[in-house]
Amino acid sequence: MDTNVFLQFTNLKLPYPPSLRNIFRQSFSWMLASVVMFSFLIFSNYIDTIANINFDNAAELELQTIIILSTAVFIFSVSALKITFAVLHHIFLRYYIKSNQLIVVKGVFLQRFASFPLERIFGVQVCQSFIDLIFGLYNIDVVTAASEQVAPLRIAGLDRTSAYGLEEFLMKAISERSQQVPQFVPIPTAQAAAM
User: Fold this and answer.
1) Domains of the chain: which residue ranges?
2) CA atoms of 195 and 190, how far apart (whole Å)
3) Strand order in the sheet with 121-127
């Protein structure tokens, strides 16, 4: 296969798709907060009925109920928005190779483009955080020379087969591209002094 033609445009999201579990991973903290708030509502309502707490007037009980319910509605609404945003992020995430450059597009409303020439990429690493381990997700970190100063480019939320398949594909594309690019040959010091 001619790699020069092959690497002109390759959509990597189709053969190595992000996992749908990433949607739940991105909204995990808000869903956990919703469960805690729902448990708190049930528990506080249970305590009120069992302990027979009497307030001096009914207005205090209504105010407490309104505050608890409005907090619950707020957290459930934010959780729903977070899940919606995670779905949109999943849909709009793109990563592909075009003109021998790895391009990653992230974002829903404000899209961020990251572009790296294949010959400038030093390596590709598969990594996993503790929460990713719980959800069975993997991340791909693309290591470049700039990665020492800033965080490396990360393609997050892949399942195991997609992560290791994408890593293998990128490493092969990087090695094939580096063989095509002429390498810098230093001039020996004796010849450099004569110039």
Assistant:
1) 3-12+93-180, 23-89
2) 9
3) 121-127, 138-144, 153-158
Helices marked H in 27-128 — which ranges?
Answer: 28-51, 58-92
Listed residue (157, 18, 13, 25) closest to 83, CA to CA: 25
Q: How far apart are CA 99 and CA 122, in angstroms?
A: 18
Which element (helix H / strand E) includes 104? Answer: strand 101-106
**Cα–Cα separations (whole angstroms), residue 138 to 14, 34, 52, 111, 189:** 17, 26, 51, 23, 47
Does this model's pTM top 0.85?
Answer: no
DSSP-derived secondary structure letter, 18: B
Which CATH number among 2.30.29, 2.60.40, 2.40.128, 3.30.70 corresponds to the domain 3-12+93-180?
2.30.29
Q: How far apart are CA 130 and CA 138, in angstroms?
A: 10
β-pair partners for 143? 123
Please measure the distance between the N-terminal and C-terminal CA atoms of the chain and give it in whole angstroms: 43
CA–CA distance, 46 with 65 (Å, rounded to integer): 13
Residues 127-185 pLDDT 10s: 999 989 999 999 999 888 776 667 778 899 999 999 999 999 988 888 887 676 555 54
Q: Kindly state the DSSP code that residue 155 receives in the 8-state scheme.
A: E
State how far the Cα of 51 lies from the Cα of 41, in Å rounded to an integer.
Answer: 15
